Amino acid sequence: xxxxxxxxxxxxxxxxxxxxxxxxxxxxxxxxxxxxxxxxxxxxxxxxxxxxxxxxxxxxxxxxxxxxxxxxxxxxxxxxxxxxxxxxxxxxxxxxxxxxxxxxxxxxxxxxxxxxxxxxxxxxxxxxxxxxxxxxxxxxxxxxxxxxxxxxxxxxxxxxxxxxxxxxxxxxxxxxxxxxxxxxxxxxxxxxxxxxxxxxxxxxxxxxxxxxxxxxxxxxxxxxxxxxxxxxxxxxxxxxxxxxxxxxxxxxxx
Length: 254
What we know:
Elements: H1 9-25, E1 55-56, E2 61-64, E3 70-77, E4 79-81, E5 85-87, E6 90-99, H2 100-104, E7 107-109, E8 125-127, E9 139-141, E10 157-160, E11 179-182, E12 194-201, E13 209-217, E14 229-234, E15 240-246
Antiparallel strand pairs: 1-13, 2-13, 3-12, 3-14, 4-5, 6-9, 6-11, 6-13, 7-8, 10-11, 14-15
């Protein structure tokens, strides 16, 4: 006789049926998803691009001063490839560097003159530099004196008296008499062509927060995401304080 008792066939069937029923009540174990079944939906890029002649910078550029002076570097590409190489005609104007407290108390809700300044995007508020005096800012340049006033013109930048940003953003859009152009159209255009400029500003207090504001223009006929501009601020001994790039897909609003 066997040492282990044999189960009757009917009992074994009942055990199998019970196991099947219990398994039916248990939650199913999640199975891995095949790689080709994963669909990633990216966040749509909000393209802040001038829809009119001049628009306020689409970024807020803050920095903490590390000394009494700082350098502002600006670079911009000259050409983009659409159906052919197109000249971007980028310019900046109304460059102001002020303490963050001055900036915060002179903001205007952007719901009137410049509310549609950018295609498919909206700059919530505008710094009304015309409600302060130049003495209230560490740097205040509207480019209305007929010169570039200290900006480097050796690497493609130039004074442009053919267009200008507003001089009274608090009450309207009256234009001034000039701006700083970035890159002159040339006879041998290249996608590698870049214009650069720099200026040293003073009257900064070490350890204090500042905001750089300005206005930007691109040729109205350009409709390319390849247009880009970079502004970098460094302190004494070229200590990096801030850097922002906007306008292009690869370096959008860093």
